[in-house]
Specification:
Layout: E1 2-3, E2 9-12, H1 16-28, E3 34-37, E4 44-45, H2 60-63, E5 64-66, H3 68-74, E6 78-80, E7 85-89, E8 94-97, E9 101-103, E10 106-109, E11 113-115, H4 124-130, E12 131-132, H5 137-146, E13 152-156, H6 160-171, E14 175-180, H7 192-205, E15 208-211, E16 215-221, E17 224-229, E18 234-237, E19 239-242, E20 246-248, H8 251-255, E21 264-266, E22 277-279, E23 284-286, H9 294-308, E24 322-324, E25 331-334, E26 343-347, E27 354-358, E28 364-370, H10 377-381
Parallel strand pairs: 1-9, 2-3, 2-10, 3-6, 10-22, 12-19, 13-14, 13-19, 14-15, 21-23
Antiparallel strand pairs: 4-5, 7-8, 8-9, 11-20, 16-17, 17-18, 24-25, 25-28, 26-27, 27-28
Helix pairs in contact: 1-9
Length: 389
């Protein structure tokens, strides 16, 4: 079956990027046919809340602020839910789903990213039962349902998401072990002293860190599991939560012949290598970067809405602080560009740790804050790009 909508804007995905784009487009064009395709029910929720919902007892249903059908009706869109996008014909401008095809004038891929899964040795059925990732609402529902009271949980990864989950789980009354090959948490995001300060705060609440090592294998041991680490340690756990990062979903784009790298490669207007196909959010590689955070996603969606409605608008990112949701020790960081040779410098602050990242001209190109020093965020955002006296 073919859905004949030749003037339609078709969006694949129903996460924050997809819904933000759809709403922004509708503000600018009240009449254009708008179709969203999603593998789930399309319900709108805030994905960042998944990593701090356990301690507060939030059910999966309570995180949904707008059902998919209601959200689509509110903006006059067609929602094709519980359907999989399987192929793109860029010549015919046609999207194939698992039960029909949809013609498009413009197509936007907002397909997100998949969790990276570490290659653990062990029986496949044991890994399937014991190892979880939380990347969407359905993942959260499965993990929450499997989590017994006062569970022993190993969190693989002590980056941003791993630390947020470790914080949430320990506050929720669980026993938490965090495993990471880096020498301190947030190893690739913040200066080492801030990572160690977060480690101290989480350790003080009961989290046990196993740093400088990795998980190697898992096997069932009675009603629990034994997780073996590369350093020889053996952890007895009820569940394992893998939080080692995300990999953009590029398979659909790659199979259609679009240029992909770490993500779906787009230009400054978020256009892919096909003239009528765009990508936004966690799946897109913009200016050579994949930015799996809320603020760049929102900025990108708003700019793309203008482009799709006739006003070509390059994406221009403002200073975008990353807030690590660890109430035991809040952390905020603006990281310098990946290729930057700027240096971190500690700054005296009685309220917490404060670091400035300065380039060779003594200009502020990044900063990292912890604890009450996070209150300096707004003031420092205003000074990024300026010389510091």
């Amino acid at each position: 079956m073919t859905t004949p909508t030749p003037s339609a804007l078709v969006i694949v995905g129903s996460g924050l990027a997809a819904w933000t784009l759809a709403r922004e487009v509708r503000k600018l064009d009240a009449q254009r046919p708008l179709v969203l395709v999603t593998r789930d029910d399309g319900g709108f929720y805030s994905k960042p809340m998944l990593s701090n919902a356990l301690a507060s007892g939030r059910s999966p249903q309570s995180l949904v602020t707008n059902a998919g059908a209601a959200a689509a009706e509110a903006i006059g869109a067609t929602l094709l839910d519980h359907r999989e996008a399987v192929a793109i014909d860029v010549g015919l401008q046609r999207l194939a789903l698992d039960d029909r095809t949809v013609d498009y004038e413009q197509l936007v891929l907002a397909v997100g990213a998949d969790p990276i899964r570490l290659p653990l040795a062990g029986a496949p059925e044991v890994i399937a039962q014991a190892v979880f990732s939380v990347n969407d609402l359905a993942d959260y529902a499965r993990f929450r349902a499997a989590l017994p009271p006062r569970a022993r949980v190993a969190v693989l990864g002590a980056g941003l998401i791993g630390c947020e989950f470790a914080n949430d789980l320990i506050l929720g009354g669980h026993q938490v072990a965090a495993v990471d090959p880096a020498p301190q948490p947030l190893g690739r995001l913040v200066p080492a002293p801030i990572g160690r300060a977060l480690e101290d705060a989480l350790t003080g609440a009961g989290v046990v860190f196993h740093l400088g090592t990795t998980a190697q294998s898992i096997e069932r041991q009675g009603e629990a599991y034994e997780l073996r680490l590369a350093n020889g340690a053996v952890l007895t756990v009820d569940l394992v939560l893998s939080a080692v990062g995300l990999r953009p979903r590029t398979q659909l784009a790659g199979a259609a012949g679009l240029v992909v790298d770490r993500g779906i490669v787009v230009d400054e207007t978020l256009q892919t290598s096909a003239s009528a196909v765009y990508a936004v959010g966690d799946c897109a590689q913009v200016h050579g970067q994949v930015l799996p955070y809320v603020m760049p996603l929102m900025v990108g969606a708003r700019a793309l809405a203008k482009t799709l409605t006739g006003a070509r608008t390059p994406v221009r990112y403002p200073v975008m602080p990353v807030v690590v949701k660890t109430p035991l020790l809040p952390v905020t960081v603006v990281a310098p560009a990946a290729a930057s040779e700027a240096q971190w410098h500690a700054v005296a602050n009685a309220e917490g740790l404060e670091f400035h990242c300065l380039d060779e001209h003594a200009r502020l190109v990044g900063f990292a804050l912890s604890g009450a020093a996070c209150g300096r965020r707004a003031a420092l955002v205003q000074r990024v790009g300026q010389p510091l006296a």
